[in-house]
């Protein structure tokens, strides 16, 4: 069982603060700040207006002022850093938060590198040109932008280091029960045997598992790449595709966490958004075999009296709520998490 039993005086299990600030703010600010300073230093060598939009062939088809260009780049970058810091600050008091912090570092560095490279290439294409119509952007520019952004994101991801070793939880008794069939919200669910955990009043272990769906991640990154390409031709279509990608990508991976508050399902590398099932609302919990077709397909599914997070068919956690509804999530090796969640439920109810 992956668990954390933190108490007073115990270390936190996140990224070291200096690495965190380096990846989320310091490196991105230095990168974009350096490009911005260089841009302002060559202002006299740029046409006014300057070419800021190009066709696939590299010829300009749109122009604006340098001030407008900086206004389109700098505020989104600052917003990106703010969102990264928000994700970090929201998670600082959580016992299990390494993935969210590492994701925030990679996101802020990658997005800022993307913006800084676009700004540098745009200014370079206009440098010493008599008018914006004379500017030319190399066809390989989009490849350069993507490579630089990916390199900086991977660099920050690596800077975060490796996940910390988690201490063992309380001892787990042997398996109990047997395979059986339970009816939940009008459908049959094959329940897997789970161990039994006994918790003392001072025990506060945490269990977590991570699951990634390569097909869903591939779809998300494919839509994002399409949006970047479309943006050159049609900015509106490019932005819409990017929004679709940002909705799809968080569904490509999840982290399930069980602690004394209940069950948490966190989406994507930044562990946001999240689905929380409070312990007080849980009537029963099972380790079960989950079929996507039984729960409405893949992704986040909502149906009459039920909801589910399904990344693949196979083992997962099924929770029966006190109001008669059910929630399911696919996750590897769910039995220890189910045992711990049931132990917390029994302790809360005094059983």
Task: Outline the fold blueprint.
Elements (H helix, E strand, L loop, with lengths): L16 H25 L8 E5 L5 E5 L1 H26 L6 H29 L14 H19 L12 E5 L3 E5 L2 E6 L1 E4 L9 E6 L1 H20 L1 H14 L4 E7 L2 E6 L6 E5 L3 E9 L8 E5 L2 E5 L3 E8 L4 E5 L4 H14 L3
Parallel strand pairs: 13-15
Antiparallel strand pairs: 1-2, 3-6, 4-5, 5-11, 7-8, 8-9, 9-10, 11-14, 12-13, 14-15
Helix pairs in contact: 1-2, 1-3, 2-3, 3-4, 5-6
Walk me through the structure.
- The protein is of the alpha+beta class.
- The protein is 42% helix and 25% strand.
- The protein is built from 7 helices and 15 strands.
- It has helices at residues 17-41, 66-91, 98-126, 141-159, 214-233, 235-248, 335-348; strands spanning 50-54, 60-64, 172-176, 180-184, 187-192, 194-197, 207-212, 253-259, 262-267, 274-278, 282-290, 299-303, 306-310, 314-321, 326-330.
- Strands 4-5-11-14-15-13-12 form a 7-stranded mixed sheet, covered by helices on one side. The chain has a 4-stranded antiparallel sheet with strand order 7-8-9-10.
- It starts with 16 loop residues before the first helix and ends with a helix.
- The model is unreliable at 1-11, 92-96 and 167-181 (pLDDT under 50).
Low-confidence stretches: 1-11, 92-96, 167-181
Query: Would you report the number of β strands?
Result: 15
The amount of helix comes to 40-55%
Which structural class best describes the helix and strand composition?
A: alpha+beta
Report the biggest beta sheet as strand number plus sense, adding barrel if it closes.
7 strands, mixed
* General shape: elongated
Cα-based radius of gyration, to the nearest Å:
25 Å
Distance between the termini: 23 Å
Q: What amount of the residues lies in strands? A: 15-25%
Tell me the series of helices and strands, N- to C-terminal.
Answer: HEEHHHEEEEEHHEEEEEEEEH
Helical element count? 7
Mean pLDDT: 81
Biggest sheet strand order reads 4-5-11-14-15-13-12
């Amino acid at each position: 069982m992956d668990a954390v039993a933190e108490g007073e005086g115990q270390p936190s299990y996140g990224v070291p603060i200096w690495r965190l600030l380096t990846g989320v703010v310091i490196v991105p600010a230095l990168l974009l700040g350096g490009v911005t300073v260089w841009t302002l230093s060559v202002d006299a060598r740029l046409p006014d207006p300057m070419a800021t939009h190009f066709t696939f062939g590299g010829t300009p088809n749109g122009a604006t002022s340098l001030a407008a260009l900086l206004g389109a780049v700098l505020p989104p970058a600052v917003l990106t850093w703010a969102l990264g810091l928000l994700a970090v600050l929201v998670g600082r008091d959580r016992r299990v938060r390494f993935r969210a912090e590492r994701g925030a570092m990679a996101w802020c560095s990658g997005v800022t590198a993307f913006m800084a490279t676009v700004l540098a290439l745009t200014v370079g294409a206009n440098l010493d040109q008599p008018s914006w119509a004379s500017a030319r952007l190399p066809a390989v520019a989009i490849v350069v932008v993507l490579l630089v952004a990916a390199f900086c994101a991977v660099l920050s991801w690596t800077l975060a280091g490796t996940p910390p070793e988690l201490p063992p939880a309380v001892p787990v008794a042997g398996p109990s029960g047997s395979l059986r069939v339970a009816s939940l919200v009008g459908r049959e669910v094959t329940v897997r045997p789970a161990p039994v955990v006994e918790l003392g009043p001072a025990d506060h272990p945490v269990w977590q598992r991570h699951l990634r769906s390569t097909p869903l991640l591939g779809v998300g990154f494919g839509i994002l790449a399409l949006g970047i390409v479309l943006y050159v031709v049609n900015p509106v279509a490019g932005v819409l595709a990017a929004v679709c990608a940002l909705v799809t990508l968080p569904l490509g991976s999840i982290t399930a966490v069980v602690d004394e508050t209940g069950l948490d399902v966190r989406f994507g590398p930044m562990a946001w958004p999240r689905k929380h099932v409070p312990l007080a609302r849980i009537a029963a919990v099972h380790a079960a075999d989950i079929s996507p077709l039984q729960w409405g397909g893949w992704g986040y599914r909502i149906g009459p009296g039920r909801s589910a997070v399904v990344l693949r068919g196979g083992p997962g956690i099924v929770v029966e709520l006190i109001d008669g509804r059910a929630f399911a999530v696919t996750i590897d090796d769910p039995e220890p998490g189910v045992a711990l969640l049931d132990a917390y439920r029994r302790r809360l109810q005094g059983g």
